[in-house]
Amino acid sequence: MTFEKLEHSQIKASFEVSAEEFAVALDEAFKICNEKVTIKGFRKGKASKEVYLRHYGVESLYADAIDCAVSRKMREELLTNTEIQIASQPMLDVDYQTVAEGQGFSFTLTFDTFPEVVLGEYKGIKVAALDNNVTEAEIANEKNRLLKDKIVIEVKEEQVIALGDIAVFDFLGSVDGVPFDGGAAENYELEIGSGQFIPGFEDQMIGMEANTEKDITVTFPENYGEKSLAGKEAVFHITLHEVKAEITPELTDELVKELELENVNTVEEFNAHVESSLAERKLAYNTRQIDNTVMETVMNNATVDLPRSFVADRVKSLRAQVENQAKQYNIPFEMFLQFSGVSVEQFEAQCQEEAERQVKSELVLDKIAEVEGLLPTDEQIDEAIKNYSLSSKISVNDILKRIGKGPFAAQIASNNAIQLILDSKVVE
Fold first, then answer.
1. pLDDT at 386 over 90
2. CB within 8 A of 160, min separation 6: which ones?
3. pLDDT tens readout for residues 85-122
4. Long-range contacts of 228-232 (CB under 8 A, 24+ apart)
5. Which end of the chain is more exposed for a tag (fewer CB within 10 A), N or C?
6. What is the pLDDT of residue 312?
7. Whole-prediction pTM value?
8. What is the pLDDT, as a whole number, of residue 130?
9. CA atoms within 13 A on the CB side of 185
10. Do 225 and 212 touch, CB atoms closer than 8 A?
11. 86 near 309, Cβ under 8 Å?
């Protein structure tokens, strides 16, 4: 056997089957085929080879004989080769025209192997610190969020539109002096600055007084949904009736109690709660961002020639997850993707990218665990299976039958490698 290394961690192994070896394979094939046929005067499988060949010819044995010869070569020359770890179903290539009794033939097997993982730097990764301080703007936004349900909308004392106010108005839109469908409404309520209308529309309403009228000129975007209006200049005649504003009630101990926040009953406690909870969330978020940056750096530092079959299997898995979600909602797969704002082509590209990321990450973490001696013990694996059994309500025996120990061992090793990487990071 000779073998050639190809791209994407593939190997093409070439074999030679001698005439003598093929003769043995033909005998093996006869035993297989003879059991499948019925020849008059003989019980099934009891006809001699000579009788069988008179009825069916030696050519009928070739397919099974090739399988026998290939299997033998794999067992004797490939599976015993410690240099090669087969990681996918081998693809057979043989020129059937060269196969004949009394002759030898050649064939190749192409398959994926477990790839070589070349690790780069993975310990002591330096990463920039993030600002964990909570700003006054963030505190104000959080308070507004918590008090949102207490906000009331009232008629504004000064009936002049300002940013953030709610305008109640009639409008009539026209292009080249001709009104268009959907361009008119009465007593419409619009929060100024919300961006609901065409760019420039809301800005031009700022400063208008109630019970006044105004013409506003805007241009529809080139990508506007209604193609007949896309890129067109339009005039909207505005009649402003009323201006309202959101009023947040004064923050008092009584109002704080109404919010029913745990252990928060006074304004002072409310202010402290907002600041501390924001600080905790920001610290947790920044920690995740830093850890993600570290892990991404480790993966970028490593080199792996990803096997196609590994990635293809993961793509199938990712697609199946989304297909199952679509089935749960009883929605066609393509429509389900549309609701998510992606086309089938975009989804497939995303799956490919995510599959490659996941497979590389797993291989790199496995290698780090191996190099650092972080592979789990049998006791750790058994403990993980026991915990999974308790949480999933599935017996340990069923878990071992359905899943086996492999995934648990891989997950523990991966977690150990991640912990090593993150514990050694340097935040500057």
1. yes
2. 207, 208, 209, 210, 243
3. 899 999 999 999 999 999 999 999 999 999 999 999 99
4. 228/180, 229/175, 229/180, 232/175
5. C
6. 95
7. 0.72
8. 96
9. 10
10. no
11. no
Q: Which amino acid is at 426?
A: V
At 24, the amino acid letter reads: V
Query: Residue 156: what pLDDT?
Result: 93
Supply the mean pLDDT for the chain: 94
Angle at the Cα of 314 (from 310 to 320), degrees rounded to 5? 150
Task: Band the pLDDT of 346: cuts 50, 70, 90.
Answer: very high
Burial class (CB in 10 A: 0-12, 13-18, 19+), 217: exposed
**Three-class secondary structure assignment of the chain:** CEEEECCCCEEEEEEEECHHHHHHHHHHHHHHHHCCCCCCCCCCCCCCHHHHHHHHCHHHHHHHHHHHHHHHHHHHHHCCCCCCCECCCCEEEECHHHCCCCCCEEEEEEEEECCCEECCCCCCCEECCCCCCCCHHHHHHHHHHHCHHHCEEEECCCCECCCCCEEEEEEEEEECCEEEEEEEEEEEEEECCCCCCCCCHHHHHCCCECCEEEEEEEECCCCCCCCCCCCCEEEEEEEEEEEEEEECCCCCHHHHHHCCCCCCCCHHHHHHHHHHHHHHHHHHHHHHHHHHHHHHHHHHHCEECCCHHHHHHHHHHHHHHHHHHHHHCCCCHHHHHHHCCCCHHHHHHHHHHHHHHHHHHHHHHHHHHHHCCCCCCHHHHHHHHHHHHHHHCCCHHHHHHHCCCHHHHHHHHHHHHHHHHHHCCEEC
Judged on CB neighbours under 10 Å (0-12, 13-18, 19+), 122 is buried
238, amino acid identity: I
Q: What is the mean pLDDT of residues 262-281?
A: 96
Is residue 45 scored above 90 in pLDDT?
no
Q: What residue type is assigned to position 85 of the chain?
A: Q
Among left, alpha and beta (phi > 0; psi -120 to 50; other), residue 224 is beta
Structure tokens, 21 = 């070896």
Decide if 293 contacts 127 (C-beta within 8 A): yes
Residue 361 half-sphere exposure toward CB, CA atoms < 13 A: 17
Is residue 315 within 8 A of residue 356, CB to CB? The reply is no
Among candidates 416, 412, 414, 422, which has minimal Cα distance to 298? 422
